[in-house]
Amino acid sequence: MKKWYVFTMLFALLSAGCGGGNSGNPSQKSISISIAPLTAKVVAGQGAILTVTAVNTGIIWPEGVAGSYTRVGNIATYTPPSVEGVYDFTVTASEDIAKKATAKITVESEALSIMVFPKSVTLREGMEYLFVADARPKQTVSWNVSGDCGTITQNGKFFAQDAGTCALTASIPGNIGDTLSADAEITVLAGAANTGTISVSELAESLDLPASEFALCYEGEAVDAVNASINEGSSIFNVSGTPGNVLLNRRTGAYRVVGGASAIDIFESALAAILAGNSLPRISAANVEKILTNAHYYGNPNAEIVVLIYSDFLCPFCKRHHSDQTVETLTANHPAEVAMVFKNYPLAVHQTAELAAAGLYCAGKLGGDDAYYSFIAQAIQAGSFTG
């Protein structure tokens, strides 16, 4: 009996010295799983980006979820059904299936609307220009031009014929038998585009930019701004030649580089990959903000995907890229998702390209997006530049 008592006491002491039973076992780890955001609102056809955080556990992703989703690592892009309602996206901790996290995604109907880009443009006789209409929900747009300065096709391509001013209208059917429309103004200047030497200051004057302010900008901050654009393209995306095209997801920082004057199907494939959330390189949110601060947009400035074109006005491939209107067509094909941003990247081999780049910077600063892209439309035709 004594032996049994001694053995029992010794066992109790040993248990106490080790922390006693399972109460302090360091091998037991806290398991948790969370999802952010917990709630989100999207319009029909739009996806919500959800980030899952799992501690000491793997993630069981949902099966048979309403709608569809893609994921890269712990980030999912969930596209619920297009029908209005609230849809759950639930993930589970693999180490403890009782622990779950749910995001509630509300699908709302999209208000009928239409926008046209650009709002105004200045061209020369004989030039072509592709307008972009963002109709919500996505549908066929009717185009019309009033005035005698040119004609427009039903895909939004305008042909400048005679000097003058035209009013462009893009319209869709309204809710009560009427039409909903958006307007733009087109100015056609006399004479064909100059393919020889263009004076940057005279080009600015043709766009009605204030001469004194343009000169102050051109002789001051413009050179530093152009150099900053070059440094941005080379340091962030390793751009070395032109045109350098980067499809950038402004929300996630994911990007895809498309080299040179590639065909539209190459751009469509790159766009599909970035929208699907495929594994792609990413840049920081700070760099996204740096790139897009004060950017000038062709298309919807709120588009999720921005196609950056690092370009040189005297580069033959850049001229062909512009003439083919490849990125402009991509933007017109996906007006809700895609916008274009032209970035200065003059090469040292083209000695006067930097003069045009500086002029473009000032055109954008003083005249906004419309003056910026009107400047491009004429400058890209030139063979050289003077100040």
Summarize the entry for a quick read.
By secondary structure, this protein is an alpha+beta fold.
Description:
- The chain has helices spanning 2-17, 200-206, 211-218, 222-237, 264-275, 285-292, 316-324, 326-333, 353-379; strands at residues 32-36, 39-43, 48-55, 59-60, 68-72, 75-79, 85-93, 96-108, 113-117, 120-125, 128-130, 132-136, 142-146, 150-152, 157-160, 164-173, 179-192, 197-199, 244-249, 255-259, 297-299, 305-311, 338-344, 384-386.
- The longest helix has 27 residues, at 353-379.
- Mean pLDDT is 91; it is low at 1-24.
- 29% of the residues lie in helices and 36% in strands.
- The protein folds into 3 domains: 29-108, Immunoglobulin-like (Sandwich); 111-192, Immunoglobulin-like (Sandwich); 194-386, Glutaredoxin (3-Layer(aba) Sandwich).
- Strands 20-19-22-23-21 form a 5-stranded mixed beta sheet. A 4-stranded antiparallel beta sheet has the order 1-3-6-5, with no helix packed on it.
- A hairpin with a 5-residue loop joins strand 16 and strand 17 (179-192).
- It has 387 residues and is an alpha+beta fold.
- Helix 2 (200-206) packs parallel to helix 9 (353-379), helix 3 (211-218) crosses helix 9 and helix 4 crosses helix 9 (353-379).
- The protein is globular and about 75 Å long.
List the helices and strands and how they pair.
Blueprint: H1 2-17, E1 32-36, E2 39-43, E3 48-55, E4 59-60, E5 68-72, E6 75-79, E7 85-93, E8 96-108, E9 113-117, E10 120-125, E11 128-130, E12 132-136, E13 142-146, E14 150-152, E15 157-160, E16 164-173, E17 179-192, E18 197-199, H2 200-206, H3 211-218, H4 222-237, E19 244-249, E20 255-259, H5 264-275, H6 285-292, E21 297-299, E22 305-311, H7 316-324, H8 326-333, E23 338-344, H9 353-379, E24 384-386
Helix pairs in contact: 2-9, 3-9, 4-9
